[in-house]
Amino acid sequence: MATMMVVAALAGASDIGVADPQRRALLDALRPAIERDLMQKVKFVVRTLRRQDRWAFAHVVPQTPAGGSIDFSQTRHAERVEAGIFDGPDVYALLEQKDGRWIVRDFVVGPTDVAYLAWPDEFGAPMGLFERAE
Fold first, then answer.
1. Which of 10, 14, 29, 109 fits 102 for a cystine, CB–CB 3.0-4.6 Å?
2. pTM
3. Do 128 and 89 form a contact (C-beta atoms < 8 A)?
4. Residues 101-110: contacts with CB within 8 Å, 24+ apart?
């Protein structure tokens, strides 16, 4: 029974491939928020990009425009890095499409827990977006 519920929840969620034009729109919507957070220009390595209805979930790793690693000790996350409560460069984000545009509803950088699991209750996003998140 539980397996059937998971399959039903995932039925509406679909991964967004490299050639899909939605990919660029979603990443372009996310980029300014992450650049403000990190106070530098970034490009993304995409781990997961998934859409269901008007919602999208992104698991990305920001890099410098040249493809190098971000030095998080030089960002607003420096204290977390030093305290050992920063779990790597991963960014998880929830986006919502409104009036034909993608907006960032929430994101977390280097979380030490699975912060995005609260997003279905907090924002009303479908759980199927997050079921296979890495």
1. 29
2. 0.88
3. no
4. 101/29, 102/25, 102/26, 102/29, 102/30, 102/56, 103/29, 104/29, 104/30, 104/33, 107/30, 107/33, 107/34, 107/37, 109/34, 109/37, 109/38, 109/77, 110/72, 110/77, 110/80, 110/81, 110/86
**pLDDT digit string (tens) for 57-82?**
999 999 999 999 999 999 999 999 99
pLDDT given at position 7: 45
Q: How far apart are CA 9 and CA 18, in angstroms?
A: 24
Output the six-digit token pair for 103: 């907006």
pLDDT digits 0-9 by tens, 83-127: 999 999 999 999 999 999 999 999 999 999 998 999 999 999 999
